[in-house]
Amino acid sequence: MKIGVIGGGAWGTALAQVAAHRGDPVTLWAREAEVVDSVNTRHENRLFLAGVPLSPSIRATGDHADLGDCDALLVVTPAQHVGAVLAQIDVGTRPLVLCAKGIEAGTRRLVGEVAHGVHPQAPVAVLSGPTFAHEVAAGLPTAVTLATADAALGRALAERLAAPHFRPYASSDVVGAEIGGAVKNVLAIACGVVDGAGLGQNARAALIARGFAEMTRFGLARGARAETLAGLSGLGDLVLTCSSTSSRNFSLGLGLGQGRAAADLLADRRTVAEGAFTAPVLREAAAEAQVDMPVTAAVCRLLEGAPVTDVIGALLARPLRNETH
Hints:
This protein is of the alpha/beta class and 325 residues long. The chain has helices at 10-19, 33-42, 82-86, 111-118, 133-137, 151-161, 174-196, 201-221, 226-229, 232-241, 248-257, 262-267, 274-289, 294-303, 308-316; strands at residues 3-6, 26-29, 58-61, 72-75, 96-98, 124-128, 142-148, 166-171. It has an eight-stranded mixed beta sheet with strand order 3-2-1-4-5-6-7-8, with helices on both faces. Strand 1, helix 1 and strand 2 form a beta-alpha-beta unit. Helix 7 crosses helix 14. The longest helix has 23 residues, at 174-196. It is globular and about 60 Å long.
């Protein structure tokens, strides 16, 4: 099974490295010409993953047509661009493995729903979990959820992508895997705010727990399974991204907590903090599903420019309630 990777950022490059670990040929499509040149001539993605030597069996390209001989495509573009990018590619019935985490603005569709809308004949799988790209590319131990409704396809993809340091766990809960990845990005911003504002470790632990409760309520309302949300693609990813500045979303929250403006923080970034785009869409989707998500609403207020002290004060002043509700 020849793998093509759509997206030449850090995560796309790391997944190409995983797919090429046995020396198998992998095609990596990147929008940036400098990435294509760097990967092909130096076997390194100097723009997004500097310092990590890449397998010489990875061939980068800026031409979608070069993906034509790939048997499965890993889609690693930012969530808000998945539909537009896929519309330019002749996918047919080839499997799409979705590795972006988010909810489409305007439509409130999960990435899998976006992909199905563009290529209804293509089987869809979701790869998600606690994954910092630089660790995956460096060969450090990593486990992920690989979710698809087609069990045979899931086994084939897992066997192709599995490496001594990269362990996929099968799931049939595509919705649950997607929701965990999307919601945790928003919650990671909130945890960064806690650190940036100097609120302490107690507050961060409480926020992770209450944020996970929000993720679970929303996931169940959208048809996810509780055990998926408590697994690698939900709680596992949440713990990772809520506790490290290697997380783009946590770093964004850290700046907000220190009093910097969201517009300035986002303008400084070459890479995308998906949670900034997901938060307002998630707030709309939660209202539509009649799910209470106060942490998500607080992140939205911060991104809209509300003072940190006001937002935190409003969260802490909410009426007391039963923890399991």
